Amino acid sequence: MPTIIEARNVYKSFNNNTLGTFVLENISLTFTNNKTYTLTGPSGSGKTTLLHMLALLIKPDKGTIYIDEQDSAFFSAQQKMVFFSNTIGLVFQQPYVIPELSVVENCMLPGIIQQKTKEECYKKALNLLADVELSAQAHLPVKALSGGQQQRITLARALFNNPAFLLLDEPTGSLDSKTASHIIDLILHLHNTYKTGIIMCTHDQKTVALMDHCVTLEHN
Ligand SMILES: Nc1ncnc2c1ncn2[C@@H]1O[C@H](COP(=O)(O)OP(=O)(O)OP(=O)(O)O)[C@@H](O)[C@H]1O
Ligand SMILES: [Mg+2]
What we know:
Elements: E1 4-12, E2 24-32, E3 36-40, H1 47-54, E4 62-67, E5 70-71, H2 77-87, E6 88-91, H3 103-113, H4 118-131, H5 147-158, E7 165-169, H6 177-194, E8 197-201, H7 205-210, E9 213-216
Helix pairs in contact: 3-4, 3-5, 4-5, 5-6
Adenosine-5'-triphosphate binds at residues 14, 23, 41, 43-49.
């Protein structure tokens, strides 16, 4: 059974709608985890807002986000835990890594939080770092790595619990085009290997062309 994230008749405004302007207005979309999607549109059109809504980080003013046909507004703390640890992995535009820790320690964090054994987390993290071609850097402090390499750590870390979906917010936005295209190849490879659904905000038309579906948001 595929995992499905659905936005139905979703509205979002950041000014209590006093000006009658919505960032997102009556958006209905369905995402299944056997596909790859891009969210595109001009700066300010609401890509990050939509991604964060699909990640249940912010709530719609009106409308519903369904996870496998269950209304997320009524999720218990336990259901949210399962959602954040198993349904999605999030990658932000900037690589959020803990500078005091090594590459492998950063990658182990989701397992440590879930109180898995250190040995188990270490083994899993090393496998994921091999997937993102960072085996040689595993024991370096993250400070020693470039921006593109740090973004690959966050990719590996987001995959730690084998989430149904990877949600990525312009993961290559601050990288040169060669590094960026390498990371996109890697994301598609991870999709094929782990059957992880991809939902990615991007401005890059080359990336859009490589994905199954493209959602274009208009400026409101
Ligand atoms: N927390 C917030 N408070 C107030 N306004 C916000 C907030 N978050 C987003 N907005 C506004 O909502 C609109 C959409 O923002 P969003 O970040 O979703 O756009 P985006 O499409 O991701 O843009 P970009 O391509 O620049 O990343 C913008 O006008 C922004 O100023
Ligand atoms: Mg954005």
